[in-house]
Structures are given as structure tokens and as C-alpha cells.
Write a structure and sequence with these properties.
CATH superfamily of the largest domain: Carbon-nitrogen hydrolase
CATH topology of the largest domain: Nitrilase/N-carbamoyl-D-aminoacid amidohydrolase
Number of domains: 2
Structural class: alpha/beta
Length: 611
């Protein structure tokens, strides 16, 4: 009994000492695994925001698209996030988007809240990208070189769909100057180009020496062995470089081959009419007469060049087309909207003027206008494109199906009426969405109308072309009617054109664009802007120094904000497109991986750091 007590007394101090020693080790371990300060994260996040801004218009420094994500990918490499890392990513990304989207404020003072709100929404994509990629790298042990492009591509697809979508400023758009590189869009969509660029950025980030990461204050100073964890062997470095070079070579080879297969044939001669009228939320009726006069005069200047099709921009025929369901009585028309005079429903002047325009040009016409349509129980307002044939008149009308939130409608207004009070718009604000796709058939050619920003939505344009082919009549020409007068000659005009060019590559279908204030253009199936046969510069004629080209010969930039008309033959493209046939299969796989990473982020615990 005494011996047992003595053994017990002797054993207790040993246990306390061991506990004390473990406690000290835990304290040391916690110190070693403490996150680094926030300065490095702020600096790298800011650098990525600046590089992304510079890669797009107005600077348009495309090569930066290969490296702009390298700084934030260093934040993916480190095992433990720095202090304030996600806050830094969100706030600097917000600042970058504010700078990039500054053109939104130009249309009207009431657009400032929308500008800031959209920037705030887009700002969350960068920290989400870093967070999901970190889950893949540190919890699932997926190489960053493959995890990063998969996550980025999946998030781009999400951005193209969520809340009607914002498929602008995809990182792949930065390469619009490199024609051979972007031809893979007819297989993977623009998402394939983005995937390649982010993969390259990830490979470069993986080559950054650990000592540089320490100097950037990304690693805890308490952990003396921290840099050793990030050493990449020479063999691993070579593998990363080889993979990048192989993919880049394969992409360029495909681009050269596909461009070599382009056997363009001359299609319809189109006359694209471009006025120069800046726009506000409050359209000035006093300008309607001048708008009509300028567009009619420009149309007249193209007649001697014998166009097959004349295109006016979105809503540039300012007089509304009133239509109603057959058999509606006068009482029903008055009841639908008492403020609309009964005579407006019976007036045929708009139809007669449109017919007269087509006959004067001796060409079919596609003209953008507002359409008001009444049925016994409703009144609908559409942003439309009317198709007019000489000696016949209006034969068809396409009503825009993809509306711009807070620009053409207020989301959830019926479900949450209080949202209306947060906007500067009245109760009658907004337009209805069109019910179906329409095609304009004119002899041997089929035109696919797209209104406003519809030419920026990849899955929408792909659907239009796919449906046309499924019905046995392949689409010959995409026709975009746009009013970019809201943005006063800013970089929006350039970026809109760049984004539209990718639709022609994806679908291998040429596009013509008639755009108020510019940039009107003919785009071939390779996504290249074709110099027109005729460039009529009305403003230059008045000044005595007419321009003879779409571009400034000194800078190579497109002219903007001028009254002009261009005429040229559309290069028809006989090639087919896997993207039209299969859709967003590639980006959808990436998006599914993002969903899996979200689940893994909530279910898998971070692995403890090795000391």
C-alpha cells in the first residue's frame, strides 16, 4: 500500500510536466501557424485589379490577360490565408469594377446606383474564385494549374446566367487581337479561351520562388520553415511549362487550320445606317424629326450602291408601331389603355412610312422601333425589329426576348413591389419580353435579328442559330440593332463590339451591326471586322474632310460618335460549329466542379499544418 502511494506520488509530477510540455508545444505550434499580416494580400489584390482593368478597354493591353491573375493566385498557394485576405480581394475587386464600368454612369444621373450595385455584385466573384480554388488545392490536393482555370471558367458561366447574366469582360475577351488563339471558341465557347489564360497564370504563379512569397509577407514570420513547404522541383516546373506550351501550340494550330478552312462567299450587300444621337432615360420628342431626317438621308446615300438589306439601329425609328389583336372593339381598346388615343390604333401612317423607306431604297429593311400591342386583357410594350419588304410592307416583327435588368425592366417587381420605390422609374417603366425567336427570310438569305445587348449573350445567340439550323434553314447572317448612345463614345462601344465578335466565332455565322453612335460593323465568321466597300461620312462631308475608313489611320482605332453609313457584302461562312451543336458542355463541367468544391468546402476540414 505504501509502495503504491509512493509510486503514485512520484508519477504525478511527471504527468504534470508532460502536460506542461505539450502545452508549450501547442503554443509554439499556434504561433508558427498564425496567419501572416494583411499587407501582402492588399498589395497583390490591388495589383490584380489594376492588371485586369488595363487588359480590357480603354487601354486594351491584351497580353496582360495571361498574367493578370498571377498575384491573387499566390494567395491560393499559401496554406493559411493572411489576415483580411478576403476583405482585400473583395474591396480591391470592387474598385477595379467601378473603374471598368465607369461608362454606365454616362447615360443619366440615375444610373449611378446601378453602376455601383453591379460593381459590388461582380466584386464577389474574385474572392469566391480564390476561396474555391484553395479548397481544391489544399483540401483535395488538386494541382493549382488545373484547379484555377476550372473554377474561373465555371464562375464565368455562372456570371453569364445569374440574374439574366452579365457576360461582359470575360478574361478571354482580352485576346481579341490574336485571331488564331480565339478560334477555339467554336468548340468550347469563349470559356475555352478564358480557361487557357487562367491556366497560364496558374502555371506562372506556381513558378514564383518561395523566398519571393516570404518577401511579399504572405508567410508567417514565426514559422522559420514556412518557405520550405512551397519549393517546386525543377521537374515540376518543367512539367508546368511543357503543359502550357503544348496547350498553347495546340490552340494556335487549331486556329490556323480553322482559318485556313474559311471559304467565304459573297452574301447579301448590306447598308448599315449609323446616326449620332446621345441618349438619356428621358427621350426628347423634339429630336424625333431630326433623327428620322438623318437616317433617311443616310439611307438615300447608299441606294446607288444597291444594297439588298438596309439596317437602322435599335429604336432609331422613334414613332411607335401600334398593333392590336384582330376583332377588338373601340371600347376594348380604350379600356386597355385610356391614355392612348383611339386614333393611334387605327393610324396606318407608320406602316406606310416604313414601306416607303423600303421602296425608296429598293431593298428590304430591318428597322428598330417601339411596338405597342393590345389584346383584350393586356397591353404590351416591346423593343422590336421590324422586317419590311418593298411592295409588301412589314412582313414580320421580332420582339427582344433578353431584357436588361433595371434598364428595360425591374426584377421581381410583381413579387416584391417595394423594389419599385428604390428606383427612379415610374409605374409604367419597362418593356415586356418577346415570346419567341423570329427569323427574317428574304429570298435565299435568312437573317437572325438580335436587339441591343443580345449579341453579348453566348448561350442566347447559340440558341438562335441552333434553332434555325434545326428547322432546316441555317442562319446566314446575324443582324444586331443597338443603341449605344447612352455611353457617349466611351470604352463601352469598343467592348460591346469585341464581345459581339466572339459570337460570330462561336457560331461560325457572320454578323452585321447597326449601332447608334457606333461602332457599326460587318464581322466575318473568324470574328474579324471587315473593312466595308463604302464608308460614307456625313459629318466629314459637312466639314470638307470626309473620312474614308472605319478606322483612324494613325491609331487604328474605330471612329465613334459620327453620322455615317457603311455598305459591303457579308462574307457567308459554310463552316459548322461544335459549340452550336453541343452548347456550353465544357463550361458546364467546370461549373459542376465548382458546386462540388462548395460542398467540399463545407464538409472537409482543413488539414493541419506540418511543423
Amino acid at each position: 500500500m505504501t509502495a503504491t502511494l509512493m509510486e503514485t506520488k512520484v508519477a504525478r509530477p511527471s504527468t504534470n510536466t508532460e502536460r506542461h510540455e505539450r502545452s508549450v508545444q501547442e503554443i509554439i505550434g499556434e504561433g508558427r501557424s498564425a496567419p501572416a499580416g494583411s499587407l501582402g494580400a492588399w498589395g497583390l489584390s490591388l495589383l490584380t485589379a489594376l492588371l485586369c482593368w488595363a487588359a480590357f478597354t480603354p487601354l486594351d493591353w491584351g497580353p496582360l490577360g495571361f498574367v493578370c491573375l498571377v498575384p491573387v493566385l499566390l494567395l491560393v498557394r499559401i496554406e493559411r490565408p493572411t489576415r483580411w485576405m478576403y476583405t482585400a480581394l473583395t474591396l480591391t475587386s470592387f474598385g477595379g469594377w467601378v473603374a471598368t464600368l465607369q461608362w454606365m454612369r454616362l447615360g443619366d444621373p440615375s444610373m449611378y446606383p446601378a453602376w455601383l450595385a453591379l460593381s459590388a455584385y461582380l466584386a464577389f466573384y474574385l474572392p469566391t474564385f480564390v476561396g474555391l480554388t484553395r479548397v481544391a488545392v489544399h483540401r483535395l490536393r488538386v494541382p493549382m494549374m488545373f484547379a484555377a482555370p476550372v473554377v474561373w471558367t465555371g464562375l464565368e458561366l455562372l456570371r453569364a446566367h445569374l440574374m439574366t447574366g452579365f457576360p461582359w469582360y470575360f478574361i478571354g475577351h482580352t485576346q481579341h487581337h490574336w485571331a488564331e488563339l480565339i478560334q477555339i471558341a467554336d468548340v468550347f465557347g469563349t470559356y475555352g479561351v478564358s480557361f487557357l489564360l487562367v491556366l497560364t497564370s496558374a502555371a506562372i504563379a506556381g513558378l514564383v520562388p518561395p523566398l519571393w512569397m516570404a518577401k511579399l509577407r504572405l508567410l508567417s514570420t514565426d514559422d522559420k520553415r514556412a518557405p520550405e513547404r512551397y519549393w517546386v522541383t525543377l521537374m515540376q516546373q518543367r512539367k508546368q511549362v511543357v503543359v502550357c506550351l503544348l496547350l498553347l501550340t495546340a490552340t494556335l494550330t487549331y486556329g490556323f487550320v480553322r482559318r485556313g478552312q474559311a471559304a467565304f462567299t459573297a452574301g447579301p450587300r448590306v447598308a448599315l445606317i449609323q446616326g449620332n444621337f446621345t441618349t438619356s432615360l428621358k427621350h426628347d420628342p423634339d429630336q424625333w424629326g431630326q433623327i428620322f431626317k438623318i437616317h433617311r438621308y443616310l439611307t438615300g446615300q447608299t441606294v446607288k450602291h444597291q444594297p439588298d438589306l438596309v439596317v437602322w439601329p435599335e429604336t432609331m425609328f422613334r414613332y411607335r408601331l401600334f398593333e392590336h389583336a384582330p376583332g377588338m372593339s373601340d371600347e376594348q381598346l380604350e379600356q386597355v389603355h385610356p391614355q392612348i388615343p383611339l386614333a393611334s390604333w387605327k393610324d396606318t401612317q407608320v406602316r406606310e412610312v416604313l414601306l416607303s423607306l423600303a421602296e425608296e431604297a429598293n431593298a428590304s429593311s430591318i428597322i428598330g422601333l417601339d411596338a405597342i400591342e393590345a389584346s383584350p386583357d393586356s397591353l404590351s410594350h416591346y423593343n422590336s425589329a421590324a422586317f419590311i419588304v418593298p411592295a409588301v410592307g412589314i412582313t414580320s416583327r421580332y420582339d427582344k426576348v433578353h431584357r436588361v435588368p433595371f434598364g428595360e425592366y425591374i426584377p421581381l417587381r410583381e413579387t416584391l413591389p417595394w423594389i419599385q420605390r428604390l428606383t427612379p422609374f415610374g409605374d409604367d417603366f419597362g418593356i415586356q419580353a418577346g415570346e419567341s425567336i423570329k427569323f427574317f427570310d428574304d429570298g435565299e438569305w435568312r437573317y437572325v435579328p438580335l436587339v441591343c445587348f443580345e449579341d453579348t449573350v453566348p448561350h442566347l445567340v447559340r440558341q438562335f442559330v441552333e434553332v434555325s439550323g434545326r428547322k432546316g434553314e441555317p442562319a446566314d447572317v446575324l443582324v444586331n440593332l443597338t443603341n449605344d448612345g447612352w455611353f457617349h463614345g466611351s470604352s463601352e462601344l469598343d467592348q460591346h463590339l469585341i464581345t459581339a465578335r466572339f459570337r460570330s466565332i462561336e457560331t461560325r455565322t457572320p454578323m452585321v451591326r447597326a449601332v447608334n453612335t457606333g461602332i457599326s460593323a460587318i464581322i466575318d465568321g473568324d470574328g474579324l471586322v471587315v473593312e466595308p466597300e463604302v464608308f460614307f461620312d456625313l459629318d466629314g462631308q459637312a466639314d470638307g474632310q470626309p473620312r474614308t475608313s472605319m478606322r483612324n489611320p494613325e491609331t487604328g482605332k474605330f471612329h465613334k460618335q459620327l453620322n455615317c453609313a457603311i455598305v459591303g457584302a457579308v462574307p457567308l461562312d459554310p463552316r459548322s460549329s461544335l459549340y452550336v451543336r453541343w452548347g456550353d458542355w465544357f463550361a458546364s463541367i467546370c461549373a459542376a466542379c465548382c458546386v462540388a468544391l462548395v460542398v467540399a468546402g463545407f464538409t472537409l476540414k482543413p488539414k493541419p499544418l506540418e511543423m
